[in-house]
From TrEMBL:
Zn(2+) binds at residues 89, 362, 366, 404-405, 448. Pfam families: Alk_phosphatase. Disulfide bonds join 206-216. Gene3D superfamilies: Alkaline Phosphatase, subunit A (3.40.720.10). This is Alkaline phosphatase. The active site is at residue 140. Mg(2+) binds at residues 89, 191, 193, 357. Keywords: Disulfide bond, Magnesium, Metal-binding, Phosphoprotein, Signal, Zinc. InterPro entries: Alkaline_phosphatase, Alkaline_phosphatase_core_sf.
Length: 489
């Protein structure tokens, strides 16, 4: 076993090196090119916690020793049977650091996320719809469209290019190639990140026929378009679709085969199994193209795991707070359990592509709500751990974890007030941390920022995330790693 971290496994390093040499000699030249086997990579254990007393010399270091062999042992051959893409909406390095400091301590590790062996950064800029020049702060629609379709576009665009032309998504291509597919989120299913895998509309707000008629006129079915996001989601027919956004399903189709019927009735006629609670979800034993699964657990976005604690103009100087559970979360399925269920339903001979999103890291960030934000980052961590656990057993699954864009939260000098809104929190370390939301003075109106975003991975093809890439790159290497014909209809 190669141990990449501060744990104690010095002897194992030498053993692993010999094992790898044997593996390369046995398998060199096999399909997939250079790299080790899944068996070898699964044995690399990364434990990046501080070594000990952080006030002592070497106490804060996270590495147990030279990691060259462990990195070499993590780079696998390129082809994978399954890909799980996990997105933290609005989750860049500031958000990850904030959550780590609060929940696990400055020298701690974010379970799942900090265990990924290979990482890099990607650029996330969008395009201006009119000038076609870079728009340096992307929204979730343009950013999601970038990785889902390989094409840069304008803010607000879902699955169409800067000229409005539909671009095929990974999920659509995977399904056309006979792979199984899943789409899981904590937000409304019509929200930008889940929508980019299943829909093509000119404006992200076109959830149902009502909004589409008004805001995306040429996309409306009655005008010869592909229809609203929800209608396209149903037509896209992923095997597993889980999230929120039930209210749109009560809208009525205005044209097409299901005219004058509600979208809920349409889902049933199309053969979907519909579940509305965690218990109903647990009871589902199979989901496929005959009986795809549609799980919708809230009218809008799913509730956040932790209660709100909004930052204010003077909040940074007020007594530090400790975050509390959100009583409204109730029996809502957690992101990790939805992820586990999706994997259980999708795994098998055909191989699958699954997208998972913790969507309300972004929404809490917009609200200047550090507790809501950290709680949803905890959900992200749990979902990544779930995906990683499966991938390490399966040994033929690529797990990619990233954010879609940077956001406004910043860790600032503790106990201070800076321009914008601030809040001071008690941390796991027994310390205090102050967070600033500086892009607006109105909670709810905080905005995205334009920094590059971390992307990390484990499994076959994970080497593609290393260094600086662009947000459109995942479309190409995910479809390549899965061996998909991108033109197959
Ligand atoms: Zn946002």
């Amino acid at each position: 076993m190669t141990k990449l971290g501060s744990g104690k496994a010095p002897v194992a390093l030498a053993v692993s090196a010999v094992a790898v040499l044997g593996m390369v000699a046995a398998c060199g030249g096999d399909n997939g090119g250079p790299g080790v086997s899944g068996e070898t990579a699964a044995k690399v254990e990364i434990n990046r916690v501080a070594a000990g007393d952080i006030t002592a010399h070497g106490g804060a270091k996270r590495l147990a020793g030279d990691q060259t062999q462990a990195i070499a042992d993590s780079i696998q051959r390129s082809k994978a049977k399954n890909v799980i893409l996990v997105i933290g909406d609005g989750t860049a390095n500031q958000e990850l650091t904030l959550a780590r400091n609060y929940q696990w301590g400055a020298g701690g590790r974010i379970p799942g996320i900090d265990e990924l062996p290979l990482s890099g950064d990607y650029t996330t800029y969008a395009l201006d719809k009119t000038t076609k020049k870079p728009d340096y702060t992307t929204d979730s629609a343009a950013s999601g469209s970038a990785w889902a379709t390989g094409t840069k576009t304008y803010n607000g665009a879902v699955g169409v290019d800067v000229n409005g032309k539909p671009q095929r998504s990974i999920l659509e291509i995977a399904r056309a190639n006979g792979r199984r597919t899943g789409n899981v989120t904590t937000t409304e299913l019509q929200d930008a990140t889940p929508a980019v895998q299943v829909a093509h509309v000119s404006q992200r707000k076109c959830y149902g026929p009502v909004e589409t008629k008004e805001k995306c006129t040429s996309d409306a079915l009655e005008n010869g378009g592909l229809g609203s996001i929800t209608e396209q989601l149903l037509a896209a027919r992923a095997d597993v679709t889980l999230g929120g956004g039930w209210k749109t399903f009560s809208q009525t189709a205005t044209a097409g085969e299901y005219r004058d019927k509600t979208l809920e009735a349409q889902a049933k006629e199309r053969g979907y199994q519909i579940v509305r609670s965690g218990d109903e979800l647990d009871a589902i034993k199979a989901a496929d193209q005959d009986k795809p699964l549609l799980g919708v657990f809230a009218d809008g976005n799913l509730p956040r795991l932790w209660d709100k604690a909004t930052a204010t103009k003077e909040g940074g100087k007020e007594a530090p707070i400790t975050c509390a559970p959100n009583p409204a979360f109730g029996a809502t399925p957690k992101l990790a359990s939805m992820t586990k269920k999706a994997i259980d339903l999708l795994k098998g001979d055909k191989g699958f592509f699954l997208q998972v999103e913790s969507g309300s890291v972004d929404k809490a960030n917009h609200d200047a709500d550090p507790c809501g934000q950290i709680g949803e980052t905890v959900q992200l961590s749990e979902a990544v751990s779930t995906a990683l656990e499966f991938a390490k057993q399966d040994k033929d699954t690529l797990v990619i974890v990233t954010g879609d864009h940077a956001h406004t939260s910043q860790i600032i000098e503790a106990g201070t007030v800076t321009p914008g809104l601030t809040r001071t929190l008690n941390t796991k370390d027994g310390g205090v941390l102050t967070v600033n939301y500086g892009t607006s003075l109105d909670p709810g109106e905080e905005q995205h920022t334009g920094g590059q975003v971390r992307i990390a991975a484990y499994g076959p093809g994970a080497a593609n995330v290393v260094g600086v890439t662009d947000q459109t790159d995942p479309f190409f290497y995910i479809t390549d790693v899965l061996g998909l014909d991108r033109d197959k209809k």
